[in-house]
Specification:
- The protein is mainly alpha-helical and 147 residues long.
- It has two domains: 65 residues, no CATH class; 39 residues, no CATH class.
- Helix 3 packs across helix 4.
- The relative contact order is 0.09.
Length: 147
């Protein structure tokens, strides 16, 4: 090495010859003495006429009202067709247990979903008042948003 080069372990490693690695071997796993777990068959709720239809009609109406704030034509279309769309899901759930199981889970609310739903109007009001992109989507100018 010249006088201007500083000896460091990094430079020493860079000039050393490569050392071949040992063969890769899959790690050994310890046996756990438990029997293999058997998945239980998921519970399918019994069909009750109109339960799924009513739940999804409410969901569609809520979605329609939300969309209506941004696009009146599309929102109105969703609201007007919510009953027919929900009824079609109810018929499908009656005939298909797997679909009934999924749709029933979708209608089951959790504590978090209730919190989100309860706070959504507040978030929309604040966004419509203070976020320029939302105001322009709603077709409001700055003076209307201030009211």
């Amino acid at each position: 090495m010249s006088a201007t080069q500083v000896e460091t372990p990094i430079l020493d490693l860079a000039f050393e010859e490569a050392v071949p690695f040992a063969e890769d071997v899959a790690p050994k796993t310890a046996k756990r003495g438990r029997a293999a777990s058997v998945k239980a068959e998921p519970q399918t709720p019994a069909y009750r006429a109109g339960v799924i239809a009513k739940g999804f009609e409410n969901i569609y109406a809520t979605v329609g009202m939300t969309v209506f704030a941004f696009d009146q034509h599309c929102g109105q279309t969703i609201i007007e067709n919510s009953e027919k769309m929900a009824a079609s899901l109810d018929v499908l759930a009656k005939n298909n247990p797997a679909v009934r199981r999924v749709l029933s889970k979708m209608l089951t609310t959790s504590a978090w979903s209730e919190v989100i739903i309860a706070h959504a109007p507040l978030v929309m009001a604040i966004a419509g008042h203070h976020v320029p992109a939302v105001r322009s989507m709603l077709g409001m100018d700055a003076e209307e948003a201030a009211e």
